[in-house]
Amino acid sequence: MKRETSGNRVSRRRVLQYGGVLAGSAFAGCSRLISDATQQTVDTVSFNEGQLIINLNPDTDADTIEFRSPDGKLLQTSQISRKQQVTVPLLIKHGNVPGVSKPLPAGDYGLIATKSSDDNDHKTVSEQTVELTSSFSVADVNVLKNNAPSDYDNNVPAYADNLQVTVKNDGNLPLGIKYIGVTDGVPSPIPPPQEVLGGGMRASVFELADHNSTGPFYIDSNSTLAFKTTTGPLSYYAYWQNPEGGDSPGPHTWGAPKNGASWETIQANYCTGDQHPATIVVAPINLESQQATVTLRWDGKATRRQRLDTDYACTNVSVSNISNKNSSA
Predict the structure, then answer these.
(1) CB distance 302 to 312 below 8 Å
(2) What is the mean pLDDT of residues 95-108?
(3) Chain Cα centroid distance, residue 27
(4) Does residue 119 carry a pLDDT above 90?
(5) For the residues 204-216, what does the mean pLDDT come to?
(6) Distance CA 13, CA 18 (A)
(7) Are strands 64-68 and 74-79 parallel, antiparallel or unpaired?
(8) Which superkingdom is the protein from (predicted)?
(9) How far apart are alpha carbons 219 and 226 in whole angstroms?
(10) What are the residue ranges of helices labelled H in 93-214?
(11) Where are the alpha helices (DSSP H) in the chain?
(12) The pTM is what?
């Protein structure tokens, strides 16, 4: 939680493909299974790679199992003769964009096992319920440094630039992520989800930490996936290098001099150990946006982002005190 991570050495779990959408995956254990029959057709259920894995009782005499929504709508019928396992996809088509899906809504889903009779009727063998849940948390936050200056700026030291945010899927449904941003408490805040997702920005504000790909992304049950911001929220942009000489001010950002300052003043008064809370916002596809707060400490020394630039950043920023607000369904 408090370590710095080089932008080109970010670890991750396995990344998989769900119909054109990237996802992190790890096998998850069994979920709550409720039965009202002595003979249970479904023995256990588990979750893996965006699917519900239904493990059948080998002694069942049922030949069909139905998967029904919480309101009783039939979603899938599977023939189970000679089968030990049935799978149900937990991602459904979302909108008219090819390859974009969304998770099923959270709730109690029915597993209805039936057996065909001689008169082509179906007798119910067992009725069971599986609980599908959606919840998540920010598991880790790290500082990413820009440590690859251009050839003509090789005297510029590495500086803190972006944040790596690791999100954990605490539910058993796939978790779709469409936005991650630092909206306040940093020199250059990222616009909120409604502005970014509403078309106010052309470029994505985040991507996978070790893969130059933009979302939406899906995180599998009981898995984590690391993302990084891409707009440099930890940098100070366009301070006044010489206001008396006629330099024009750039956009004012948190912590930057209000009335302009010399480079000597910047070096003497900034990146000296100040601590400030910052807000990280995560916007899933299937849940409301949620916030996490962290404490950022600005240390090291101030350095220009490029040798002739009026933008600057701190050589060291550290993270502590991650606090999540509740997010579940």
Answers:
(1) yes
(2) 79
(3) 18
(4) no
(5) 76
(6) 15
(7) antiparallel
(8) Archaea
(9) 10
(10) 193-195
(11) 193-195, 263-269
(12) 0.80
- What is the C-alpha separation between 156 and 215, in angstroms, rounded? 32
Mean pLDDT of the chain: 78
Which domains does the chain show, CATH number per domain?
Answer: 4-21+135-324 (no CATH), 29-132 (2.60.40.3080)
| pLDDT at residue 6 in the model | 38
Classify the C-alpha dihedral 300-303-306-307 as positive or negative: negative
The whole-angstrom separation of Cα 87 and Cα 90 is 9
Alpha-carbon gap, residue 34 to 127, rounded angstroms: 9
**Pseudo-torsion of CA 92, 95, 97, 102, nearest 10°?**
-30
Tell me the C-alpha distance between 94 and 21, whole Å. 12
Q: What is the mean pLDDT of residues 104-121?
A: 89
Whether 16 has a pLDDT exceeding 50, the answer reads no
For 55, the enclosing helix (H) or strand (E) is strand 51-56
| Cβ atoms of 310 and 231 closer than 8 Å | no
Convert the pLDDT of each residue in 75-100 to its tens digit: 999 998 777 899 999 998 766 656 66
